[in-house]
Amino acid sequence: MTSPPKSSIKIDTPSPPLSASQEMMGNRETGPEFIRSEELKNIVRIGTRGSPLALAQAHYVKHALQAQNTTISYQIVTLQTSGDRFLEADLKTIGGKGLFTKEIEQALIEKKIDLAVHSMKDVPTKRQNGLEILAVLPREDPRDAFISHKYASFKELPHGAHIGTASLRRGAQLRRMRPDLRISLLRGNVQTRIKKVEDGYFDATLLAVAGLNRLGRQDVITEIFDIETFPPAPAQGAIGIETSIQTSPELKNLIKTINCNNTHLTVTAERAFLAALDGNCQTPIAAYADIEDDTIRLRGHILSENGLRICSKKGSVPIKDAYILGTNLGQQAKDEFYA
Asked: In this structure, what DSSP letter does residue 62 have?
């Protein structure tokens, strides 16, 4: 990998620490106690993509960390990724999910940033050597939203309606439900895709509810799909924090204070299912896990691009076996789907 060009990196001014009275985010029970400021350097650099959603997520992480240590300053460092530069191309033809993370991960390796904030659904299951996902924050709503300015619900779409999406999964699921729909590529950030629908280029699109909530754009949601009939991408709605394995123990301990254990476990199961299927942006795959008491349940699906074929698997195990559950169900689905 090559280093990102200097023009692709932007650094904001370190923000003043939050007051001790401001709301604490995250789950302190899953990590060490409050970290003293003298154990860390004065500024922690947070790497992220530059889209409005990515920046909102980075600021959420920054505030969560500040709530744990009220005296450290944080810089948000924005990096342009390959996925951001090639907005007109179909992801499956130019490299898949890793296009949204590789420049940020390279910055971690080169110590240009101290931690990276990712949408976990964009993180490849094959990990970069020397890096680790240290924490996953409490999950937002994982469901998909139907966005239309012409029709009050998905059922009201007329025959042959034009839907825009860049997601193979959403496209396959839509084709399975409505083979008559005309589905075309629609990429760009959330605001761009909303505007394309508003301007009449498409009759509708689908977006993650989580992203709309984080941007305060719940107003554009026409309808929310049921998670059982329209399951999400693995890890949709979850934010992950990635660091180098060489990161100082003090910073690692601080990051671990905002880890949400239940979200980390469900994302682990979903991503294990995805990994067993060798999944990336080139395969329509859906998965969703939840936890009740000490049991984790997982439902996973792999589809053909036209939606005509589907293989679904489900199972439950004690939470300590989350990874094994995802791996086993993924392998079963792979064996059956490609038989």
From this structure: H
Q: What one-letter code names the amino acid at 11?
A: I
Q: What are phi and psi of 313, to 5 degrees?
A: -135, 150
Q: Which tokens in the block code for residue 243?
A: 């660091």
- Please return the burial class of 13, using the count of CB atoms within 10 Å of its CB with bins 0-12, 13-18 and 19+: exposed
Q: Is 144 a residue of the active site?
A: no
CA angle 48, 52, 57 (to 5 degrees): 50
DSSP H or E segment with residue 243: strand 239-244
Compute the chain's Rg from CA coordinates: 20
Characterize the bridge pairing of strands 43-48 and 73-79.
Answer: parallel
Read off the pTM: 0.85
- Total residue count of the chain as it appears in this document: 339
| 252: its two tokens | 């690692």
pLDDT, tens digit (0-9, with 9 covering 90-100), for 294-333: 999 999 999 999 999 999 999 999 999 999 999 999 999 9
Listed residue (215, 275, 255, 283) closest to 114, CA to CA:
255
8 A C-beta contact, residue 236 and residue 160: no
CA distance 99 to 77: 18
Phi, psi of 311 (to 5 degrees): -125, 125
Q: What is the tens place of the pLDDT at every residue in 191-227?
A: 999 999 999 999 999 999 999 999 999 999 999 999 9
Catalytic residue among 122, 141, 144, 203: 122
Distances (CA, A) of 191 to 104, 201, 216, 225, 322: 23, 14, 11, 20, 35
Q: Give 20-50 as a DSSP string.
A: TTSPP-S-GGGS-SPPPGGGS-SEEEEEE--
CB of 47 within 8 A of CB of 54? no
